[in-house]
Amino acid sequence: MFLFMNREMTALEQSVERQLELGERLATCAEFVREGKISADIGTDHAYLPVYLVQKGIVPAAYASDINEEPVKSARKSIARYGLDEKIIAFTGDGLEKIPPDEVDDIIIAGMGGDNIAAILGEAEWLKNPRYRLILQPMSRASRLREFLFREGFAILSEKAICEADRIYTVICAEYSEISVEYAEYDIYAGRLDAADPNAAALLRKQAGILRSMAEGCAARGDTAGQEKYRRLAERLIMQTKGERYE
């Protein structure tokens, strides 16, 4: 579909190359995109991320899709404004249904809930191939997304917590593993976050608070086993933020 992706950049493209900057959330997603690979931004936001990736020369071409027509119209306007019509294709589509598996390498899904992201991934069996990299930024329920990834055989390569507009998010980089992915319940809540990072530590403390609430709920129902399980998970998360070893 990209007949012109190897041509030289036009004067218009060069003139706007430094005009688009991303917020911390999308910029972190961009950090995980591999150079020279074709990316697909699912649930695109004005196509800002694909435009940025092409402008910076990180990717030669990109797809931008959304289930609704209005975001796609906005994406096409951005693409035209930056003179990238021949390098970025925008279209409506439900999840990954219209993404050509043979023409894409890195899949970006940012700005959705963890359950929604998991549902989209679950509809694309072709993603179970180490060729593809997943860059995922859940707005909520990151633990549910991690659980899906582990259960379906995806390995989390890296994870980074970032702060934007006084809210902390996580960005997950994953790919399918040809060997069995081993994980414990703790990994679902802690992910691959580096507790030495202040943003990650804050996110882990927040998760610990959620687990404490779950423990209290179990206690109210008389579920002592559940209460103890979630209490221990919360305690372990807090100890991780302090650099202490959980026994």
Describe this structure in words.
This protein has 247 residues and is α/β, with parallel strands linked by helices. It has two domains: 11-184, Vaccinia Virus protein VP39 (Rossmann fold); 194-247. Helix content is 41%, strand content 19%. The protein has a seven-stranded mixed β-sheet with strand order 3-2-1-4-5-7-6, with helices on both faces.
Attribute tags:
single chain, 7-stranded mixed β-sheet, 2 domains, alpha/beta, about 250 residues, Rossmann fold, 9 helices
Biggest sheet strand order reads 3-2-1-4-5-7-6
Quick one: CATH superfamily of the largest domain?
Vaccinia Virus protein VP39
Number of strands: 7
Which spans of ≥5 residues are poorly predicted at pLDDT below 50? none
Largest sheet: 7 strands, mixed
Shape: elongated
Number of domains: 2
For the record, the CATH architecture of the largest domain stands as 3-Layer(aba) Sandwich
Tell me, rounded to a whole number, the average pLDDT: 92
Radius of gyration: 20 Å
Figure out the total of helices.
9
Q: How far apart are the first and last residues' alpha carbons, in Å? A: 55 Å
CATH secondary-structure class of the largest domain:
Alpha Beta
Name the helicity range: 40-55%
The CATH topology annotation of the largest domain reads as Rossmann fold
Task: Give the class from helix and strand content and strand pairing.
Answer: alpha/beta
**β-strand amount:** 15-25%
